[in-house]
Design a protein that fits this description.
75% of the residues lie in helices and 0% in strands. It is mostly helical. The chain has helices spanning 2-6, 12-21, 26-47, 52-70, 77-82. The radius of gyration is 16 Å and the shape is elongated. The longest helix is centred in the middle third of the chain and has 22 residues, at 26-47. 4% of the residues are buried.
Amino acid sequence: FHRWLFHHPRFGHNARAWHETRAIPPRARLMAVSMMAASLAFVTLFVAKGRILPVILAAILIAISAYIVSRPNARPRSQAAAR
């Protein structure tokens, strides 16, 4: 699985960047934070009957989002390929 993931045409670059430098590309970062925000909105609007679940979920997702946003940017593919 490791070899397959690292050499995959779509996921390989991001997996190698994370392994080497703990970097997350800006687009992947944006997608992750956006999907967490959408999930929180969905739970708040359609699932939660009270207020405690959205508050707990918001606290968890804010912490995870802060970690994701604090990671460095991955190098663009052109620089990574030249290496």
